[in-house]
Amino acid sequence: MQKKTHIRKGDMVQVIAGEDRGKQGRVLEVARERMTAIVEGLNVHKKHSKPTTANPQGGIIDKEGPIHLSNLMLIDPKSGDPTRVGRRAEKDGKLVRFSKRTGEVIKS
Q: How far apart (Å, rounded) are the C-alpha atoms in residues 94 and 91?
C-alpha cells in the first residue's frame, strides 16, 4: 500500500534537514513506495558513465539523488515561505491540499 504524500511532482520545496538544508528547488519525481523525491539541483552526486552509442565520450556526470519526504517542506505559492500541508474536502467532495500558513488551496 502506498501512502499519499504532501509533495507532488512540480512542487517547489525547501530542504529542512541534511547537507542541502535551506536550499529550494522543483520536484522532478516522487517515489511513493520509498517515500523519496528527486529535487532539481539538490543532493547532486558524481556518476561515472561508460561510453555508449548515445554518449561515446563517457565520463563523469552530475546526477540528483533522492531526498526523503520528511526532509522537504512545500513552499507556499502565495507567501513564498515554507508551509505545512493539510487536506480538506471541497463542497463538491473533492479532496484538495491547502497551506496551513495561509489557508489557501494549493493548485497542483
A: 7
Burial 70-85 (b: 16+ CB within 10 A, else e): ebbbbbbeeeeebbeb
Does residue 43 lie within any of the structural domains?
yes
Predicted confidence band of residue 1 (pLDDT cuts 50, 70, 90): low
What is the b/e burial string over 29-57, where b = at least 16 CB atoms within 10 angstroms of the residue's CB?
A: ebeeeeebbbbeebbeeeeeeeeeeeeee
- Calculate mean pLDDT across residues 88-99: 91
Question: What span, in angstroms and rounded, lies between the C-alpha atoms of 47 and 62?
Answer: 6
The CATH number of whichever domain residue 72 belongs to comes to 2.30.30.30
Q: What is the pTM of this model?
A: 0.85
Average pLDDT in the 52-61 region? 90
Total tally of structural domains belonging to the chain: 1
Return the DSSP state at 65: P
